[in-house]
């Protein structure tokens, strides 16, 4: 499971981590990833240290390090070179309600983020797969602007975590999605 928190000045409190821990137990999840631009409070750090649960936190600099595309890994080098991706832009969509979908608007939103100074590669993460309008808009964005947007679902995230667990490269999942887009195009 992945949860994102964006705060202008608030830190990640122990209450947020307790809630995540409750979700981990109730959903019988094997791991939760918390991604935030903020930082943990001291009590939150202590809670995590003593918890012995699978809650991983990417905060501030760790988060920036994860999204900056400076890796020497061949997969990230391929994305950096082929799509001029100085950064990897992720858009997390919490679409779980009926009627909420990864659609044309979702693709246009992330496409707007992909500027010359950022690069031409973005990822939309969502519980739900994209609907036809999202798939069609992705093709149009690729044809007209050379920007590639891939869609990652919970299933892909689980596969990436499993690959990491068995000491394989999780980015292979992303490369497979790029290959599928290119072959299906």
What report would you give on this structure?
There is one protein chain. This protein is an alpha/beta fold. The protein has two domains: 2-60, 3-Layer(aba) Sandwich (Dna-directed Rna Polymerases I, Ii, And Iii 27 Kd Polypeptide, Chain: A, domain 1), CATH 3.40.1340.10; 68-184, no CATH class. The chain is built from eight helices and six strands; from the N terminus they run βαβαβααβαβαβαα. It has helices at residues 14-26, 42-51, 60-67, 74-82, 104-113, 132-145, 154-165, 171-184, and strands at 2-5, 32-36, 55-58, 89-93, 121-126, 148-152. The longest helix has 14 residues, at 132-145. It starts with a strand and ends with a helix. The mean pLDDT is 86.
Quick description:
This protein has two domains: 2-60, Dna-directed Rna Polymerases I, Ii, And Iii 27 Kd Polypeptide, Chain: A, domain 1 (3-Layer(aba) Sandwich); 68-184, no CATH class.
């Amino acid at each position: 499971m992945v949860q994102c928190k964006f705060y202008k000045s608030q830190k990640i409190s122990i209450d947020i981590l307790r809630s995540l821990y409750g979700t981990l137990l109730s959903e019988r999840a094997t791991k939760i990833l918390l991604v935030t631009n903020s930082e943990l409070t001291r009590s939150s750090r202590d809670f995590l240290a003593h918890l012995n649960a699978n809650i991983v936190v990417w905060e501030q600099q760790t988060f920036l390090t994860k999204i900056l595309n400076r890796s020497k890994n061949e997969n990230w080098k391929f994305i950096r070179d082929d799509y001029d991706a100085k950064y990897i832009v992720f858009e997390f969509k919490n679409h779980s309600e009926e009627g909420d979908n990864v659609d044309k608007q979702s693709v246009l939103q992330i496409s707007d983020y992909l500027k010359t100074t950022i690069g031409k590669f973005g990822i939309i993460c969502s519980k739900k797969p994209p609907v036809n309008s999202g798939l069609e808009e992705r093709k149009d964005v690729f044809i007209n602007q050379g920007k590639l947007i891939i869609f990652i679902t919970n299933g892909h995230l689980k596969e990436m975590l499993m690959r990491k667990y068995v000491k394989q490269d999780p980015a292979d999942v992303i490369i497979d999605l790029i290959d599928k887009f290119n072959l299906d195009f």
